[in-house]
Amino acid sequence: MIKVLHNSNCSKSNAVLEYLDENGVQFEIIDIVKDPLTVLELKTILKKLNQPVENMVRKNEKLYLEKYAGKEFSEDEWLEILAENPSLIQRPILIKGSVAMIGRPVENVKFFIEG
User: Fold this and answer.
1) Structural domains of the chain ordered from first start
2) pTM value surpassing 0.90
3) Is 59 a residue of the active site?
4) CB burial class (10 A; 0-12, 13-18, 19+) of residue 4?
5) What family name appears in the similarity comment (predicted)?
6) Measured between alpha carbons, how far is 69 from 63 in angstroms, rounded to an integer?
7) Which of 10, 56, 88, 109 is catalytic?
């Protein structure tokens, strides 16, 4: 089963859920706003993404632009920031076993669920 890290206020995240539902894919929703992820959970997801932590950060968010833009942070610092501010996490993130992907654009999700 695919786990979907989801923010219900995000149109892209909602579009991916709709896509999965329309294609009969079983999934579990993890609402990252209602149930924020811990640093350890984020670290595990980051390993599954196999990308730098900066790719998990939504750099167009107002909070990012006001507080974090132009500053350097270590991976551990970013993980703390993301744990405290789940709105800064890219979404949706799909997790299947030992791999994960950021579900943007929705067209890429097809390859992930079939692969």
Assistant:
1) 2-114 (3.40.30.10)
2) yes
3) no
4) buried
5) Belongs to the ArsC family.
6) 9
7) 10
